[in-house]
Structure formats: C-alpha cells, structure tokens
Amino acid sequence: MSRSQSINSLPHDISLKIASSLQVFDVCSLGSCSRFWRELCGSDCVWEALCKDRWPALDFDKDSSAYQDQNFQLDMDSNLKGWRELYINKHNETAEKADLVMNFVERALAFESIEVGHYLKALEFMKSMQFGFKDVEMFFLKPKLNVLFNLVGLHYCIIWLDVPSKYLTEALHSNEITKRQVCVQWWKLGRWFHGFRLRDELHSRNISLGDLAASNEEVLGVLHRGAIHEVLRVQISAVKPTSTSWSHQVAQSVNE
C-alpha cells in the first residue's frame, strides 16, 4: 500500500478531526493533496467551524443555516452552496473593506508621516466596518506592509476589540513584526513662566509594536486622545534605520 493510499484510508472521524484542527490556509493545502482530502476539506462541518472561528461576533443561525449581521443577510440555501462559499464571500467582502482603509491611510500620508486626526479617522473607519481580530491579523499585521498599517491594526485591536496583550504579542511574533518601530511626536503648549509663555515643547518616542502591545500607557494615551487640550499636534511615522554617521564614514575611509 502506498503512502497516499494509507493516508486516504484513515477512519473518517480521525480524518475529519485532523482537518477541523487546521487554519484555513492549511485546510486549502490539505485539500489539494487528493480527491479524498479535497472532498473532506470542502465539507460543511469543516468550513462552518472556520466561519465561526473567524467571525465569532456574527449571528449564525444553525437551524436555517443563514448568516446575518446588521447590514447584510444571505440565505445560504438560495444563494450559496455551503459554508465554504460563505467563507469565501465574507472573506472577499472583508478584503475590499481592508483595501478601503489602507487607501485612506495611504492618501493621508504626507512626507512619510500621518497626522493624528487622519489616524483616528482610520480607526473609526475600521470600527464601522466591524473588523475582527483574525481579519486584522490577515490584512494589517503583515511584514511587507508599511509599519503604519501595522500600527493602525494593532491599535484598533487594543482600543476597540480589547484583545488581551498575550494574543496581540503572539500575533506580532507569528508575523515577525514585533520589533518594527514607529515614531510618535507630539507638541505641547509651552508653559507659563513669570508671565511669559515658553516655547512649545516637542516630545518624541520611538517605540516597537511589541512594546505597544504590552500597553505602553504614555504613547497609547497620546495616540488615543489626539490633539486636545495642551497637545497641539501629534504626528506618527516609521522609524528609519539609523545610518552610519558622517564622521564614522570618514574615519572608516581613512583606516582603509
């Protein structure tokens, strides 16, 4: 008996348990192995679990097999062929919403930084679209994206989804973006001193996404409040890699 035949001859309950323990990308990969796994990995019981795990806040009616939320209702019996198609439709819908948020942030970027007013609007935008934690993981916490997109997704999970720092840290680590850094600068109104107002104070913090996930209260407070009261302006940008200083380059060239 070949190896593929032995795998395909596993008892149905064990095969189903294996498929049901996987994430969506792994289910799709397993389904491409053979006709046996394609049929098993396309079954409703596997994709129903994936749907409910991906979007736990949605109302899934077990009796009518319908998906409902405030703005959208889809009868699976008349418009879909099963939970797999439901997952695909909902995923594509969420991907389009993620593109809208990213386009908004991209347009708001000026000189590689974003003002806090636009930053907070992006968070409100995400809230109105009802992104879940797994949606943020899938679309915003990716290493190839500008770190400001990572920051928007991370901050959204902190303030709107109230995701525990443990899970945020795990998500950052799995996507290898824990050490990516952002620079948050804010200008505070100058203090009064003997009847004169001193110059406005500039505060600047370079902080990693990992430290933010661990709840850095100072920076998160500035980002959440924005430009109010004594804070005149808040600007967020990516931390650029430190380049070798000019004097060090000169010394190096002399030594050579």
From TrEMBL:
Give any Pfam family that matches: F-box-like
Q: Which InterPro entries match?
A: F-box-like_dom_sf, F-box_dom, FBXO4
Domain of life (superkingdom): Eukaryota
Point out the coiled-coil segments of this chain: none
Where does the F-box domain start and stop, copy by copy?
A: 4-50
The record's annotation in PROSITE patterns points to: FBOX (PS50181)
Instruction: Cite the SMART domains for this sequence.
Output: FBOX
PANTHER family, alphabetically? F-BOX ONLY PROTEIN 4 (PTHR16008)
Question: Mind telling me what this protein is named?
Answer: F-box domain-containing protein
